Amino acid sequence: MSEVFRLDRRTMLRGAATAAGGALLGAAPLLPQNALAAPRVHTRAEWGARAPRRAATVLDRAPDHIVVHHTASANTTDYSLSAAFALSRAIQNLHMDSNGWDDTGQQLTISRGGHLMEGRNRSLAAIQAGDHVVGAHTASHNDHTIGIENEGLYMTVQPTPELWVRLVETCAWLCGVYGLDPYTAIVGHRDYNATACPGDVLYAMLPRLRDEVAGVLGAQRRSQVLAERRRGGLPGPRFRFDHGPALGPGDPGRG
């Protein structure tokens, strides 16, 4: 992690308070205010989430990676807020009714219309507190990663401009809250598991995502980025909303 982003929790909370208009004697934010401002997140109550079977586990620590996923669902042209809410409900139903999990697996969801929604229960409050909700989105790595589901299938096409702008904004917000270096923190699902997720095209766009997030954070861009990972030749989606392995032997059995 670069020195620019190596911030402890106390420093981050002090910067967040300053960015929010709070006054702390002798304290100054180490990140620009726009990096700490939360984007508009539609809550579970807004999109009509079901009650989880049990409350999600919250860890008193920050995640160290942001995992980018695609939902492996249709590339809809309905960019409305109502369609985004329907997407979140469909994902939750699939995860709970078909997968047998306690709730939605991922912490955040972005629709093709650029609407950002809270996923797993307790996720938004945990992020705001600098803590981590254990999800079910990246097998054997759910205790240290936060997952963003991006609506669509990105094997051969790019995400919509609306989705992309929101993804950049969301990753910048998370890096600011958790003190993460976007060049090392932002990864694709296939970096951890044998899966085509988040699609060949979106995966190839991750270096650009890291650059744009660093730009939002005001960080000095590097000429070297993470080594290119393999693309293609990995298992594709088997069914709707399938982005590949989400639970491993060490993860809670019910998600």
The biggest beta sheet is recorded as: 6 strands, mixed
Helix content: 25-40%
Number of strands: 8
> What structural class do you assign from the helix and strand content?
alpha/beta
Quick check: average pLDDT? 85
User: So what's the overall shape?
Assistant: globular
- As residue ranges, the low-confidence spans are 1-35, 219-230
Distance between the ends: 30 Å
Strand line-up in the sheet with most strands: 1-5-4-7-3-8
The value of Rg in angstroms is: 17 Å
Taken as a percent bin, the fraction of beta residues is: 5-15%
Order of helices and strands: HHEHEEHEEHEEHHEHH
- What's the helix count? 9
Structure description:
The chain is an alpha/beta fold and 255 residues long. The protein has helices at 9-19, 33-36, 44-47, 81-98, 123-129, 161-178, 182-185, 200-204, 206-217; strands at residues 41-42, 58-59, 65-70, 108-110, 116-118, 132-133, 145-150, 186-188. It has a six-stranded mixed sheet, sandwiched between helices. Strands 2-6 form a two-stranded antiparallel ribbon. The longest helix is centred in the middle third of the chain and has 18 residues, at 81-98. The protein is globular and about 40 Å long.
Notable characteristics:
two-stranded antiparallel sheet; disordered N terminus; 255 residues; 33% helix; 9 helices; alpha/beta
